[in-house]
Amino acid sequence: MKVLKFGGTSVGNPQMMKNVANIIKSKEKTIVVLSAVSGTTDALLKIARNIQNSEIVIAGIEIEKLENFYLHFIIELFNDKENYLEAMKIVDEYFVSLNKYLSLKISQIHINEILTFGELLSTKLFGKYLSSIGVDNELLFALDFMKLKSNGEPDFNFISEELNKILNSFSESKLFVTQGYICRNSFGETDNLKRGGSDFSATIIGNVVNASQVQIWTDIDGVHNNDPRYVENTETIKELSYSEAAELAYFGAKILHPTCVHPVQAKKIPLILKNTMNPSSKGTTIFSEVRTDKIKAVAAKDGITVIKIRSAGMLNAYGFLRKVFEIFENYKVPVDMITTSEVSVSLTIDNSSDLLNIVADLMKFGHVEYEQNQSIICVVGDFLATNRGYIAKVSQAVKDIPIRMVSYGGSDNNISLVVCSKNKIQALNSLHEKLFGNNSVVGIESFQLSEVQAN
Ligand code: ASP
Ligand code: MG
Hints:
This protein folds into two domains: 2-219, 3-Layer(aba) Sandwich (Carbamate kinase), CATH 3.40.1160.10; 296-454, 2-Layer Sandwich (VC0802-like). It has an eight-stranded mixed sheet with strand order 3-4-2-1-7-9-10-8, with helices on both faces. Strands 12-13-11-14-16-15 form a six-stranded antiparallel sheet. It has 14 helices and 16 strands. Residues 441-455 have low confidence and may be disordered. It has helices at 14-23, 40-52, 56-77, 81-100, 108-132, 156-169, 198-208, 242-250, 261-266, 320-330, 355-362, 390-397, 424-436, 447-454, and strands at 2-6, 30-34, 138-140, 175-179, 182-184, 190-192, 213-218, 239-240, 271-275, 284-286, 295-310, 338-340, 344-349, 367-381, 405-408, 414-420. It starts with a strand and ends with a helix. With 455 residues, the protein is of the alpha/beta class. The structure holds aspartic acid and magnesium ion. Residues 7-8, 35-36, 41, 118, 180-181, 195-198 line the site of aspartic acid.
C-alpha cells in the first residue's frame, strides 16, 4: 500500500487535477490524500470570520464568489454532460449547506465544519473525475477514522483500527481517495490538523496502514538546500534523514509540515517529496538515520522574538530555569531556542501574542529585554559531536553579520543562529556561497575518518 498526498496547488486547476490522475497510476494499492483546491481554505476562513463578525452580506458575496469558482472548475474538469451535471449537484449541495451558516450564531465548531468544505469538495470532485475516465476508486470520509486524543495528538490506535476496518471492507478495491487536514477531536467534534495539516494526515495514514512509502506532491522539486526566494542556484537535496527533515520543516522549509515526519519515522517508512509540475524529477527522499557527515541545507524562520532575562538570582541557583519556563507554559507559548550564561538566559519565541504579559511576569526574576523582527537561520546536516569544523565554517560564512544568539549541540542535526531579519538575506547568501558554492571547503575533518585511516 502506498500513500500519495497532493497539495492545494497540485489540484489548483482542472488541468492539474487531471495530471494527478496520471501520476497516481499504479499496480500497488494506493490511498490518495488531497488538500483543498488552493485558495479555498483561506476563502472559507474569511467567510467564517465574516459570519462571526456579523458581516453577513460580505460573507454571502464571498460564498457566491467561491461557488462561481467551482462552477467554472467543473466545466473544464468534465467534458461530458452527464458527469458535469452530477458534479454540479455536488457543488450545489455543498454551497447550499455553506449558505445555511449565514443565519447561525457561529461557534468554533461551526467554523471547523466550514473549514472541512475545501477538502470534501476537492476529494468528491476528484473521485468523480476518476470515475468519469473509468478509474475505479473509493472515497473515504476522513471524519470516520481521523481522530485526535484530548492532548491534541493523533489517536493512532483509534485511527488504525477504524481505517483498517474500512479498508478491509473494500478488499477488492485498489484506489482510495480521502481528505487531508480534517479530523475529529477527542469529543468527536469536527476539527482539523491546523493549516497545512494534510501532510500530517498523509503520514498518519501511512503509519497506520504500514505503507511501503508516503509521497508528498507539491509544486517544487523536493527540499532545496537554501531558500530559492532569496538565494540563486539552490539545489534539490536528494536524501535527508528523518531528523534533518524534521529540523528543516520546523525552521522554514515550507515544503513540509513540521509534525509530519514523526509518523513515518516511527515505522521507518520512506517519505518522498515530489513535484507535480515536474514528475520525472526524483525529488527528495527522507529515510533512515544514515550518517553522512555533511552540511545539507540552510533555512530561515522569520517573526522571531528574542527575550533576555538577566538575574543575579541565577548565580549558582537551581530551579531558576524551571520558574522561567513555567511562565511560557502558563501562556502555552513554545520556546524554540535557548542560550544561557551564568547570570542570564536568552530565548526565542515565534508567537508574540502574549509577549507583553510574558515580559511583565518575567520581570519578577530580574532585568528583561526583548527584541522583535528577528530570524532564526538554521544550518542542517549531520553534525556528529566528534567531528570538527562545522562551527568554524558557519561562523566564517557570517563573519560580517551581527549574530544575536547561537545554538549548537542541542541535536546532531542543527546549528541555529539568530540574526536581525533585515540581515537574513545576506546571511542566507553568504552561507550558501561558503557552504555549497565554489569556494566551499569540501569535507569536514572527522575523528571517525582519521580512525579509519589509522587502521
Ligand atoms: N487545506 C488546508 C490548508 O490550506 C490543509 C492543507 O492544505 O494542508 O491549510
Ligand atoms: Mg502544504
